[in-house]
Amino acid sequence: MARDTAPQCKQCRREGQKLFLKGQRCFSDKCGVERRSYPPGEHGRGRMRQSEYRQQLREKQKARRYYQVLEKQFRAYYDKASRQPGVTGENLLRLLESRLDNVLVRLGFAASRRQARQLIRHGHWMVNGRRVDIPSYQVRPDDVITIKPDTAATETVRTATELTATVPAWLQADHDALTAKVLRRPERSEISAPVSEQLIVELYSK
User: Fold this and answer.
1) Cα–Cα dist 96/115, whole Å
2) What would you measure as the largest C-alpha separation in the chain, in angstroms?
3) Contact partners, residue 164, CB within 8 Å, separation at least 6
4) How far is 169 from 172, CA to CA, in rounded Å?
5) Phi, psi angles (nearest 5°) of residue 36
6) How far apart are CA 57 and CA 36, in angstroms?
7) Angle in degrees, CA 62, 193, 93, rounded to 5
8) Calculated CA dihedral for residues 65, 5, 97, 107, nearest 10 degrees
9) Under 8 Å between Cβ of 96 and 134
10) Are the CB atoms for 181 and 122 separated by under 8 Å?
11) How far apart are CA 37 and CA 14, in angstroms?
12) Which strands make up the sheet holding 179-182, listed edge to edge?
């Protein structure tokens, strides 16, 4: 399984904002963006030439890093979104939001997407009573998500729930029983990803 092993705090600094890639650390004084609010690298504090292409590229990179997917997979999501009816950018965000690893973060069952991926790959979660070990699994309306009985990850999941204040309206969570249900597909207004999807569409449309 291909995965991004680059330093996560540097990714946030490159995009100039918190992408909440490291769970609890992002809420502490140790956050890289809080400590060094300039891009990483030798020329991080220099002036950067602004251009339309640079804005589009940065927005695409930000979305990739936020959802923790690689370029090839991200492009596949875009191609699938462009074939669906409706607005391509919104379709793209819905596909990314419906990934099981992202859903666990939205529900508060994982502190970060990297932690969610690990919990899924190790077989700690089930969808509709069947174990799912694929982080990119697309959840659908009426899917029921439950933790595997007697799993060793229960305490880790309960600790993660303490970082979550609210759950999106398109999801329903029971933090005591560690179960959840997908009520419907998310609306654009319910997706809190800090990205402008129109710039991504413009980049890939060239």
Assistant:
1) 17
2) 55
3) 107, 108, 175
4) 7
5) -140, 100
6) 23
7) 90
8) -120
9) no
10) no
11) 9
12) 130-131, 125-127, 144-147, 179-182, 171-174
Instruction: Return the structure tokens found at 75.
Output: 């492009």
172: helix, strand or coil: strand
Task: Tell me which residue has tokens 């970082």.
Answer: 163
Report yes or no: 193 and 93 within 8 Å, Cβ to Cβ. yes
Identity of the residue numbered 160? A
How buried is 197 (Cβ within 10 angstroms: 0-12 exposed, 13-18 middle, 19+ buried)?
A: buried
Judged against a pLDDT cut of 80, whether residue 15 lies above it is answered with: no
Q: Hey, what are 194's tokens? A: 């800090």
The mean per-residue pLDDT over the stretch 25-36 comes to: 54
H-run or E-run covering 57 = helix 52-67
Residue with tokens 């759950």: 167
- pLDDT tens profile 51-63: 888 889 889 988 9
Beta-bridge mates of residue 64: none
The two beta strands, 179-182 and 171-174, are antiparallel
Asked if 2 and 66 count as a contact pair (C-beta separation under 8 A), the reply is no
Q: How far apart are CA 51 and CA 110, in angstroms?
A: 37
Whole-angstrom Cα distance, residue 60 to residue 95? 15
Could you give the dihedral angle defined by the CA atoms of residues 55, 40, 115 and 111, in that order, rounded to the nearest 10 degrees? -80
Please, what is the average pLDDT of the chain?
84
Q: Which pLDDT score, from 0 to 100, does residue 148 have?
A: 93
